[in-house]
Amino acid sequence: MSLLEVKDLSIHFGGVKAVQNVSFTIDAGIVYSVIGPNGAGKTTLFNLITGVYKPTSGEIRLDGESIGGKSPDELARRGVARTFQNLQICMNMSAIENVMVGAHLRLDRNLIKAALRLPGLTRRDAELRGEAAELMRFVGLDKYINARADSMPYGALKRLEIARALAMKPRLIFLDEPAAGLNPKETIEVDELIRKVADSGITVVLVEHDMKMVMNLSDRILVLDYGKKLAEGSGEEVRKNPDVIAAYLGAHA
């Protein structure tokens, strides 16, 4: 059984059909990329699967269980995490506190305990801080563990956002344009990090415009155009597909 199954998924905003009858499956342990021109429906597809939008029609199944229309919090508890095109970092917090926020679903939310700072909660906070520090080392941000987020360069903040998503201990992580706005060195660092995440056993679903990164990382690629599925296959299959070349990659890709 595939980890994620999407069948005939659609969403309409008034008369605009943003995603139309899209179907695909994703096996566990792979890097699966979604590409297409601007406005093709890539982020909308992410928003449907991760609970930001409710589908107009179609099915989304995780491990065979229907998850269409479930909230992001519910999906997080089922092991689904994501990042966004635009940074969602709390700039008035430290870097490590941002990563700790990602573990909020595992925190004890009992307000009385929090107010009294009972020993069990204090120990858990210390454990979470240790986990967050380890994740920062994992994404290559060792030197920023004690830094404020607003003092960090943009490329480091993109990796910090990935660390925060990893703090949720996901099985499936959606990365929406993780290399957007990065310079070549930073892009290589994110490329290497995504492969490291995949090698750790987490299934990665990627939206990215950097075709070199997509072709380097992806086990399978889905191509969208005007909200519809245009093609799907390996990097080589997609690269040679004449419809993809015409719609997105360009004649010299």
TrEMBL record:
Extract the CDD domains matched here.
ABC_Mj1267_LivG_branched
InterPro entries linked to this entry = AAA+_ATPase, ABC_AA/LPS_Transport, ABC_transporter-like_ATP-bd, BCA_ABC_TP_C, P-loop_NTPase
* Residue intervals passing through the bilayer: none
Q: Name one GO molecular function term.
A: ATP hydrolysis activity
List the keywords (alphabetical): ATP-binding, Cell membrane, Membrane, Nucleotide-binding, Transport
The answer on whether this UniProt entry bears the keyword Zinc reads no
Pfam family for this entry, one: ABC_tran
The UniProt entry's GO CC annotations, sorted and at most eight, read: plasma membrane
The Gene Ontology biological process terms listed for this entry are: D-alanine transmembrane transport; L-alanine transport; L-isoleucine import across plasma membrane; L-valine import across plasma membrane
**Domain ABC transporter: from-to ranges:** 4-251
Q: What is this protein called?
A: ABC transporter ATP-binding protein
